[in-house]
Amino acid sequence: MAANSAALALEDVPSVDLMTELLRRMKCSSKPDKRLILIGPPGSGKGTQSPIIKDDYCLCHLATGDMLRAAVAAKTPLGVKAKEAMDKGELVSDDLVVGIIDEAMKKPSCQKGFILDGFPRTVVQAQKLDEVLEKQGVRVDKVLNFAIDDAILEERITGRWIHPSSGRSYHTKFAPPKTPGVDDVTGEPLIQRKDDTVAVLKSRLEAFHRQTEPVIDYYAKKGIVANLHAEKAPKEVTSEVQKVLSS
């Protein structure tokens, strides 16, 4: 039945989309497999670079928050367990998160490898991830460390203003609106996200330095960390990433 319904679903896909996907897969087949981890504090530019890397190397993007929500929505056995923990206000255990990542890695879209973003956050999580990958006979190829000074992040994040209905973003210093506090297109007022404040950033950075910096050391001992100059303009960071991944 599943095969029949898949065939019917494919019949309804426009030919141009099928051809595009086939061509994409053919192009992807010649790309080297890559298993990457992106590490960096909030505002370091991981979100800007990951879609570019994903498309360049035909990888799947595994963002743990999204995957947890998807597993809960799909009511997978691991998703049900995760929901129980969330409903009690508990943190989802490392084993559960690694299990959900393990499941996701088996999807066809992850055939050429993956980008892990937001995980591992602790050394224990990194060790558990290594164990899972070892069972599959693979390992992490590169850890991209988006290295950036806290003071630059503060300037980047606290200067960010958003137009809520369109998602357009501005920056008081780097990309200011024509009129301060007002959207260029609609003239509606801009807002700052609740998270984009000095106090929230400071607590997130403290957590990052305390928990996640040891993860960088853990992978550095394996010789797979590439330190990026994340304070540079996005295009320059992209070319740094491309150099690192082509070597």
Automatic annotation (TrEMBL):
Its EC number is 2.7.4.3. One of its GO terms (molecular function) is ATP binding. Residues 160-195 form the Adenylate kinase active site lid domain. Pfam families: ADK, ADK_lid. It catalyses: AMP + ATP = 2 ADP. It is an enzyme of class 2 (transferase). Keywords: Kinase, Nucleotide-binding, Transferase. It comes from the Eukaryota. GO terms for cellular component: cytoplasm; mitochondrion. Belongs to the adenylate kinase family. Monomer. NCBIfam families: adk, PRK00279.1-2, PRK00279.1-3. Catalyzes the reversible transfer of the terminal phosphate group between ATP and AMP. Plays an important role in cellular energy homeostasis and in adenine nucleotide metabolism. This is adenylate kinase. The lineage of its organism: Eukaryota, Viridiplantae, Streptophyta, Embryophyta, Tracheophyta.
